[in-house]
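User: quick one, sequence for these tokens?
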């Protein structure tokens, strides 16, 4: 096995708060271990365009508290093709980069897995996504911050909902996973969460109406995950307007405000631990694994398991929300 002297670091896919804390941790842990660090800009795109510069410890000063990513991020269609990945490999050879730490979501790790096996190239992944939809890890970098942002937004909307005695559908991110909607609903005291995992199982709206929705309340809030499975908040609002015209219904789509902002302490700590663990893993000869955390212990998860899309929503959480919203 070729020894690693220089690592490349990139962020890819959607930005997530805490990515900068991870960049800082990877850079500093690598330098601490005597490695050279090269920053690759705009995710996999930077490997194709050659946007790469060396990072020293001071390049990552003063970024732990910043949202977004100083390395920028991009969606790169060319990296999905064998020709694009061949160019990326040539760039790595030219830059004398021996391994990559890739920070991103399931798409980023899928790309990493394909590239690593095609070129027998060492890559370690770090889960950076607000969706928390990677398997084998309890949580991902950015999830805690996004959840707190949602709760704050719902608290604000609740003031209007209760003053005007309205029913609000609040749409949150999570195309394939309802973690933000379900935990956001529990933390903000919402009546229900409509999430992709159970959208096809039963009709949450009918259940709410059947249970005497709003009978004893002067306002109601339902969180809806943005997903083709759920249909989104606008669809539910339209249904209410047609089927229950007596309700004063409104929609709020939180959108991109959920992605930004200064990371929470939990996300900064998670990112710092994961960044240092990624370098440890590479120094130990580990390849093609994602850093995860379970029961507060760092672990290594093969890419194939991490991207499996089989992370289950907790039935206990669903039941808790149901009980507490009576
Ligand atoms: P988020 O969870 O925030 O959406 P993500 O990492 O899942 O983040 P994607 O846009 O799905 O975001 O993926 C990021 C990049 O990874 C893509 O733009 C592409 O360059 C690369 N990628 C994704 N899937 C593949 C694939 N099947 N083969 C090669 N590269 C891929």
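Assistant:
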């Amino acid at each position: 096995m070729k020894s690693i002297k220089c690592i490349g670091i990139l962020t890819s896919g959607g930005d997530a708060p805490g990515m900068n804390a991870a960049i800082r941790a990877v850079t500093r842990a690598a330098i601490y271990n005597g490695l050279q660090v090269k920053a690759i800009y705009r995710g996999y795109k930077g490997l194709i365009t050659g946007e790469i510069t060396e990072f020293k410890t001071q390049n990552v000063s003063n970024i732990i508290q910043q949202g977004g990513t100083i390395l920028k991020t991009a969606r790169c269609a060319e990296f999905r093709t064998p020709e694009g990945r061949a160019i990326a490999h040539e760039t790595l050879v030219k830059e004398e980069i021996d391994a990559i730490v890739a920070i991103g979501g399931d798409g980023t790790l899928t790309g990493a897995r394909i590239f690593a096996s095609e070129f027998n190239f060492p890559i370690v992944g770090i889960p950076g996504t607000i969706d928390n939809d990677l398997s084998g890890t309890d949580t991902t970098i950015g999830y805690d911050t996004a959840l707190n942002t949602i709760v704050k937004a719902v608290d604000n909307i609740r003031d209007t909902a209760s003053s005007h005695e309205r029913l609000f559908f609040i749409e949150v991110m999570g195309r394939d996973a309802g973690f933000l909607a379900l935990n956001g609903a529990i933390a903000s005291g919402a009546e229900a969460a409509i999430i992709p995992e159970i959208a096809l199982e039963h009709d949450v709206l009918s259940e709410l109406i059947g249970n005497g929705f709003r009978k004893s309340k002067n306002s109601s809030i339902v969180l809806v995950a943005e997903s083709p499975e759920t249909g989104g908040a606008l669809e539910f609002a339209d249904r209410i307007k047609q089927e229950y015209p007596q309700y004063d219904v409104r929609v709020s789509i939180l959108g991109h405000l959920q992605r930004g902002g200064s990371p929470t302490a939990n996300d900064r700590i998670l990112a710092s631990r994961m960044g240092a663990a990624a370098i440890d893993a590479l120094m130990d000869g580990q390849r093609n694994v994602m850093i995860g955390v379970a029961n507060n212990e760092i672990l290594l998860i093969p890419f194939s398991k991490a991207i499996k899309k089989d992370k289950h929503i907790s039935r206990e959480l669903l039941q808790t929300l149901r009980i507490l919203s009576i």
